[in-house]
## 1
Amino acid sequence: MLTLAPTFACRRAPSRLIRDCHYTAVRQFMSSSPQTSTPSGDASGPSSLAGTAPDHTAYILLHTRVPPAEYPPRSKSALWRAFTMKARQWGGVVNFAWSPALRVHGAYAGLGEDPQDKRDPRRETYAASVFSIAHRYGRLEIPEISLANLDEIDDALRTLVLGPTPGGASGGEAAAQAEAQAKATAQMAGELDRRLHLFVCTHGSRDCRCGEGGGEVARALARELEKRGIGAKDVVLGEVAHVGGHKYAANLLVYPYGDWLGTVQDFDVPQVLDDVLAWHATSQERLTRAGSDPHSQDLPPPLCPPFWRGRMGLDKDEQLALYSKAA
């Protein structure tokens, strides 16, 4: 008899019976048939989660000194707002993240909420991580980002993700601009970090389902990684602010690949981690062999189909198509 773990009072807990039975019976996502129950009860249709991840070409994380449990419900950060407006134009999403394994900026410890930040917005400064469709097998690190260098960082990331802007300068001037942007991007990036990165939304002040459910999953992941002897040199475990989709809590974001998982619970963690680690090993080999061109390879099937919300670089229709193709 299947026994489900007790749910917490504030969390909307959708029926997991069919999904849990399926996931227990089919142990490996690579060979599983991702058929899950839909709201109508039809187990042959698309997952009720597939297609719910936001369409994005890059995910940028501003590193903070405190975890999301200490974040305000809604950010008033001038830098976050300005960067979000710029990145949105080329498909980038900007968020805050905390992890002991991620470097923070040595001169700033705030969240853009301090009165001093309002008087002098340029003092707000972070180190940041960048994941994008242009480098699906690793993380880029920005050592310092503030309003003072935001335009330069935004231009470099836009070019990295989308390529040189068409219709701009021509001839030698265009070549010089491309070379300068390439140098700026290389300097910003440094060496590509090829570790697996797992981020759980634990932004409890925004929604208690994320705080409680996300917190349970984050702690379960930490315990499971420790039990397996896997440290930060191989897997980075972090927590992020609001990602969208409180009803899908707990949300687990798997980067650098950009697969989003939803409705994960603490008792799911051992099997989910098995699948994620296997995916990471095969993906590193496949993506390295294919090179950095995001269009040079066939799209791999969804990661952990019963929990799969979508993937970076795919819009809703493309996410649904990939899920249906795998099914």
Note: The mean pLDDT is 82.
## 2
Amino acid sequence: MSSASVPYCRESWTPLAVRSSDVQAPLPQPNWANDPCTTVAPQLVSLQWRDAYDPSSVQFGEMAYLDLLGTTFFLVYGPDGYAHNRDCVRLLRHFEVVRTLSLVLAYMLEDVEDLGEPHYLMEDMTRLPYVTFLTLLLIANGHSFGASSFHVLRMCTSIRKLMLICTSCLDLEAETACASGCFCDQPPNWKTEELVLNRLQEVEISYLAGTEHDFALVKRLFSWATALKTMTIRGVPRVQKPRG
């Protein structure tokens, strides 16, 4: 078996040979207080959890071989108490050590006015597992991702490799940096505060749009990663428009 989704069960789910699990579909909603679900997969090496997570409802057995952990998206700015963020934080707190961690940081498409007063939500993420390879998928939609990336990196000073994948819900060719004074530039401490990533040797950045925000973070990475050996930057592929 190559993949599995965790079903509802009264006591436990024990697929001893499962190596990779990608949980995306919403779980049924029984009376979790009386019917917790325990997942037992001691040979599991890859877990991509993109559904709701409540440790009082879904419990994990020992996963001594777990190599990769992926989570649902985490909203950088938005309303307090956002459910996706709460579940993401709960999942991250469960794991102490994992070699590869994949996080998705997302920015809403709505204007600031539509959000009311957006709150900076990254401070709800207070602890991450000990990792050596970090992948950050940044759905920035033209906003600055310096502050959010800095918040994650200062909890991952053990990393040896960093992969940043910049993406957007917008037309990538038409994407431009947001206006000066946008809420996404707060808090600004990432621009001046020192960070030591003295184990980081390799950085890969994909789909960089080339905005001022993008290069501001690249510049800081050079100053933080004092042992950096390789940095690979791939821009947004240009689409050839038909003539005529």
Note: DSSP finds four helices and 13 strands in the chain.
## 3
Amino acid sequence: MPTAHPGDTVLVTGANGYIPIWVVRKLLEKGYNVRGTVRKAEKGEYLKKYFESYVNQGKFEIVVVEDITKDGAFDEAVKGVDAIEHMASPFHENVDDPEEFIRPAVDGTLGILKSALKNNRAIKRIVITSSCAAVVTITPEARTFSEADWNEQSITETREQGRQAPPMTKYRASKTLAEQAVWKFYEENVKKEGKVTWDVVALNPPFVFGPGIQEISDPSALNTSLKAWYDFAYSPSASASKPKEAFEVSNSWVDVRDLADAHVLALEKEEAGGERIIVTQGVFVWQEWLNIANALPSSLVEKTSKPLPKGFPEITAQPQTYKVRYDTSKEQRILGVKYTTKEETTRDTVEDFVRRGW
């Protein structure tokens, strides 16, 4: 299958989001042309200003796709592009019915594939941003997951519990079903029928941390994962409201800039075609982030608007059991991402918060 190269035009959906805007930036810096979608024209104004030099060179443009779940929503946006980074996710507001969560996730993801099939047979590759939510299963024992694993547990629990299912269970079910729908569509319309020459890559990240360059008015406007980091490691009031056991919770993470690199590499590496790839730097318990933040140079720590939270340092005095690990051998073999350390991510994130006056 053909791969993308600098000079090609890439469609990035949901371009104003935390991860997508970094993907846009990395693509532009590498010499690609980018067409970004946003839900409303005003959402694109910040992007036009941030990427003004590229706009002036004709390398970056914005198109409005108001509702990504509508049939044919991307029909115009896909015309004339060489590759797609599909990163937009449906907008949810206090969704109760699981179907209201799941159908938009599935329809929004399939919509871009259907538009590409119908309106641009010359596309080289489509990269879908999935999630480790579609991989992980909650188990009492520690476990290492790989691309062979699917989160059937959340689908089953959501079907059984319906409206009573926890929001995170509904979210995980929606991510799993959306990615499964992608591979079913790919198998039936691309591999079996041979209708087009493009292929699909799914990237599965866990928690995503690191400095945000999207439009952020104040901490309450942070995206979910970065807000969690802010609440644990930076905000003394939010951190103090959490019980000790919350700081002992472990998971895996990736720096947003490394994930953006992975999205670019997924367009360029021929071997990535037809693969789902877990992209993660490694494991953490929340207390580790607080320890690292408090060990930053005093010249930086003194600039924070309030003292950094300490949490419960005794947690990390003991050997840690990391409940959720991921096998990253496929990512290292195919993409070879060079990862940012916890220390670098912490420093850069705190510097960004300080710059914002927080």
Note: The chain is about 40% helix and 15% strand.
## 4
Amino acid sequence: MSVATKLKSSPKPVTEPRAILGPTGNRARVSDESKRKTEALKKPQRPKIPVSRSPKSVVQSNVSVDSCCSSDSSSSNSSLKTVSSTKTVKRKGVKPVKPHVAPTADEVVTGISPVISKPLKRCDWITPFSDPLYTSFHDEEWGVPVHDDRKLFELLVLSQALAELSWQTILNKRDMFRKLFDNFDPSSVAQYTEKKMLLLKVDGNLVLYEPKLRAVLENAKQILKVQQEFGSFSNYCWGFVNQKPLRNGFRFARQVPVKTPKAELMSKDMMQRGFRCVGPTVVYSFMQVAGIVNDHLVTCFRYQECSASVQKDVKPKIEEIERLTKDVENTCLSRK
């Protein structure tokens, strides 16, 4: 055979797409389809796992379990929320609501506590700006009946000092007065000489003016004489009011007098006995502070307290005073 026939009988080769040179060199561009095929062959495919279908009963039971769990979780969450809310409420100080109960008597009293806590009503001359010492003097001493001779002598001297000094100044110097006058012992002060009396000075100044100091010395001597005659200086002073304090019902400070007919009578008698510096104004101040007269205003809380204390103590004191006056009368008759 010829070579030409051999060439004709040979099968035709499979034609492949020609590689086309790109502009960048020898990199060939292959068609999209061939490219996709080769990429698909190269990628490994994952085997599909068959899904087994569970029966409906199992699904329903699972659903019920899930619902129970969800309800439990919601209830637990709600309980946690309530616990946290109660904690926050406790922190804020809000008390739990209690059932309504009728208030007791103590609770009613505590409910009126703002009224009780109000400041006490005092006499008009005591203000919130008054000296605390003066306020305590008003609350504890002024207007309280006094029957002790030393205390009465002290109050008489302090009442005489009111012509020069105020009550606030006198009370601040009270300890000094007691020291200089031997705690107002009439028997001791009566032994003072006029020279010693005029040497009673504080910081180079006399505690009182000279006429007042001489009056203190002379009044101490006269008190000793009154004690011999009436048994006590208290019996003499309280005899002007029949051993019972006078009660005035003044409502305003402007109504309180500076002297009264009773004070004028007492002042006159004391002057006749030799007392000095005992005018009606001084004597009435002495009667007020010694409780011989109760001049607390009726709106003052001390008005009723002084009156109540007098009613408790007046009977035994009257009996004692009557007994002493009888003893004095008997001694006077025996001397005659």
Note: The longest helix spans residues 56-92.
